[in-house]
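Obj: model holo form, ligand = flavin-adenine dinucleotide.
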Amino acid sequence: MGNPKAFLTVPRKEAGYRPVHDRIHDFGEVEQTLNTKDRQEQASRCMDCGVPFCHWACPLGNKDPEWNDALYHGEWENAYKLLKKTNPFPEFTGRICPALCEKACILYHTTGEAVTNRENEAAIAERAFLEGYVTIEKPVRNGKKVAVIGSGPAGLAAANELNLMGYSVTVFEKNEAAGGLLRYGIPNFKLNKTVIDRRISVMEQEGVEFRYNEELIMKNEESSVDGTAVANSSLFTLPSSLKDYDAIVIATGTPTARDLKAPGRELKGVHLALELLSQQNRVLAGMTFSDEERITAKGKDVLVIGGGDTGSDCIGTAHRQGCKSVTQIEIMPKPPVGHNPNTPWPNWPVILKTTSSHEEGCTRRWNINTLEFLGKDGKLTGVKIQPIDWKPNPEGGRPIMVEAGEPEIIKAELVLLAMGFLKPEHPQYPENVFVCGDAANGASLVVRAIASGKQTARKVDEFIIKKKLRS
Ligand SMILES: Cc1cc2nc3c(=O)[nH]c(=O)nc-3n(C[C@H](O)[C@H](O)[C@H](O)COP(=O)(O)OP(=O)(O)OC[C@H]3O[C@@H](n4cnc5c(N)ncnc54)[C@H](O)[C@@H]3O)c2cc1C
Ligand code: SF4
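Output (holo C-alpha cells):
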C-alpha cells in the first residue's frame, strides 16, 4: 500500500515540460519524464486511502492505488498488468488525460498535491512497451463478425475489446490512417503519432482488420449519421458492405464544429481550428499541400476564438509555425485561480488552466464577444470585438450578456474558430447497431471515449449472446 508516510515526506514532483526556447521550434512531445527512482518515489505517495475516489472519478475505473503500489515496489510488469485490466490504451491517457482521478485524490483535497497518477500511468505504459510486457494475444474466434465505423479512441476500444472476446472485427475508417482526433486533432507536441502506430500494430497482430479510406454512410430515406433524427428504423438501410456483420458499432465522433456566422466569415484567413490542426498533423506525416491549400500562421498575427483545449492546441501550433503574435479570446468570464467555490467537490473544478501552449506566449482575454471579421481584397485583416459582461437573469436560466466597453479591433491575418462541436443526432438504427464515444455523447475526452467503446463492446456481446439463445 505505498509508503504510509511518503505523502508527508515526498512532495509532488512533475516531470515538467522541455524549456520553451527548445520546444517551440519543433513538434516533438513537450512533456519530459522522471528517472526511475523519482517515478517510484512519486508512486509511493499514494497512501491507499480507505475510499479511493480516484477509482470513481476515472471513467475507466482505473485502480490507481493498486498499480501505484506495484510501481513503488519496482514491480513494473505487475503494475502494467493491473493497469491493463481496466485501460487498454494507457499510453494515450497517460499523455493527454486531464487526470480526473487527480482532482479526486485525497492528497489533492488535503494538501493540494495529488499523486501524479497520469504521469505514473504513462511511465508504466512506456516501460511495458520497452521491456516487452505488451504481449500479443491470439483469441479463439467465436465465428461472429462485428464492423466498427471510425477508428478514434472509442472505435479502437470497442474493436480491441470485441477482438479479445473472439469476434472477428473490421474497422472502417474514412481517413488514411487510424486514431481519429488522436491523430488528426491533437497536435504531435502532446501525442506523438508513433504512439498510435505502435498500438495499431499490436491490434493488427492480434487480428483486428483496418480498412482505410472507406467512408460508410449510414442512410435512410431522410437522414445520414450526422443528419436529422428519423424515428423509423424500417426506412433504414445498411451500406451493402455491412450486410454480413452480426453487429455494427458506430464510433464516428462529432464531425460538425460550431461555426461563428459573423459578417466577414467568408474572408480568406478565417478557419475552423481542426482545419489547421489536422492539416499540420498531416504535413508532419509527410503529406504535401499546395500554397493555396496550406493554412499557416507563419509571420501572421493570429486570433484564436474559444478559450478551451482546442484553442490552446491552436496556440501551440501557431507558435511552431512561426506566427508573429497570438491572442486568445473567450466569451465567458475568466475562471478563478486555484479554487472555485461554485464548483465544489465532487464537481470538476472549473479553474483557470494554463497549458504548455499558453506558457509559450499568448495574450488571453475573457468576456469578449466577436462582432465582425474585417478584411481587404477578400483577405482577413482584423476582427471587431466587444468587451461584455454577464448579468444574472431575473427569470432564472442563462445569464444575460451586456455590453461592457467600446468595440475594438484586433489585428489578425489568421483566425481560428475553436468553439466546440455539435452533438450528432442519429436515426433509430436497427437493433444490431450501437453508437459510442463522442458520436453518442457529444464532444468529450479520450478517456470517456475509451470507456464508452469498452462498454459498447460488452453490449454488443450481450446482444449477440441473447440472439444466439433465441435462435
Ligand atoms: C483539437 C482537440 C484536442 C483534444 N485534446 C484532448 C486532450 O488533450 N485530452 C482528451 O482527453 N481529449 C481531447 N480531445 C477530445 C478527444 O480527442 C475526443 O473526445 C475523442 O477523440 C473522441 O473519440 P471518438 O472515438 O468518439 O471520436 P473521434 O476521435 O472523433 O474519431 C471518430 C473517427 O470516425 C471516423 N469517421 C467519421 N465518420 C465516418 C464514416 N462515415 N465512415 C468511416 N469513418 C468515419 C473519423 O474519421 C474518425 O477517425 C481533443 C479534441 C480536439 C478536437
Ligand atoms: S485515465 Fe485519466 S482519470 Fe483515469 S487514472 Fe488515468 S489519468 Fe486518471
